[in-house]
Design a protein that fits this description.
Layout (H helix, E strand, L loop, with lengths): L7 H6 L2 H20 L6 H18 L3 H12 L3 H29 L2 H7 L1 H9 L9 E7 L2 E7 L11 H22 L2 H24 L1 H37 L8 H27 L1
Antiparallel strand pairs: 1-2
């Protein structure tokens, strides 16, 4: 019933509703996980489940519309071809990110650790450090005492992790492509996972350092974060385009050459974006 709150055709005309539906789906999923703490991963699974029919209905393309989009490809106007899918993925991700961030930021520590334990483990596995406070100590040198202060540098990723980050993100990107190609809306699950990891990381900064550091961290991760998320969107779109092309038997038509080139360019740009993001993130 939840996915029927907004009619898909109405949501297609007003894609901003996808943002609020993502917030709703995530919030209900978190509440379920709080009520059933032994149900591991519920904060993700129960946000994904109601999104399946809604997102799928938004991504289904009628044959007439598909023919019009193929004409855009022939005119080398691929941006307009992909814009509807890009809006859906972007708004759903943004809504999920905001919801996960707010829930994690304001939940008590014990409940937050229970609900979002897998995301915390993933953040630690990638080498992210949560530094809670600055510290100082009295140092005696040459008979003189002075206070040495160890300040939080704001560095969130250890140096030298560019390749590790690129490998990890490339694996996620490939999963996005194949999930979108095989399962249609399968990429939405991975989008939710990444939205939760990023939201929880930034939420942790808010909990530890307050609003000022929260804004500072958000600004610092914005450049590489946008590149990574954008790369995932492109991979998901590439998988969806290939899936639709096969479903409508375009692979038997001359236009498939254009589609294949388009998919290749989407994947190339997504990998290039990940490489740049990894360099920026490891600085």
């Amino acid at each position: 019933m939840l996915e029927e709150i907004v009619d898909p055709s109405y949501a297609r005309e007003r894609p901003s509703l996808i943002f609020f539906l993502a917030v709703l789906f995530v919030s209900l999923a978190v509440l379920i996980n709080i009520a059933l703490p032994n149900l591991a991963g519920a904060a993700l699974t129960f946000a994904f489940a109601p999104a399946i029919p809604l997102i799928l209905s938004l991504l289904i393309k009628e044959e007439d519309e598909e023919e019009k989009r193929l004409a855009l490809l022939e005119q080398k106007r691929a941006w307009q071809y992909h814009l509807p899918l890009l809006k859906v993925f972007s708004l759903f991700f943004a809504g999920a990110f905001v919801a996960y961030l707010l829930w994690y930021a304001f939940l008590p520590d014990a409940i937050g650790a229970t609900v979002f334990g897998p995301q915390q483990q993933e953040i630690s596995r990638l080498g992210v450090e949560f530094v809670k406070t600055t510290r100082s100590e009295v140092v005696n040198e040459n008979g003189q005492n002075f206070v040495r202060i160890y300040e939080v540098s704001g560095r969130v990723i250890k140096p030298g992790l560019a390749w590790k980050l690129f490998e990890h993100n490339t694996v996620v990107l490939l999963f996005m492509f194949f999930f979108s190609f095989i399962y249609g809306v399968g990429a939405i699950y991975l989008l939710l996972w990444n939205a939760s990891v990023i939201g929880i990381f930034i939420g942790e900064q808010f909990r530890q350092f307050g609003f000022g550091e929260f804004v500072s961290v958000f600004i610092r991760i914005l450049p590489h974060g946008m590149l990574e998320v954008g790369a995932y969107f492109l991979a998901a779109i590439a998988g969806g385009v290939l899936s639709v092309a096969i479903m409508h038997k375009h692979h038997t038509k001359p236009q498939f050459k254009l589609i294949a080139i388009d998919i290749g360019l989407l994947l190339f740009n997504s990998i290039a974006a990940l490489a740049l993001a990894a360099v920026l993130e490891s600085i």
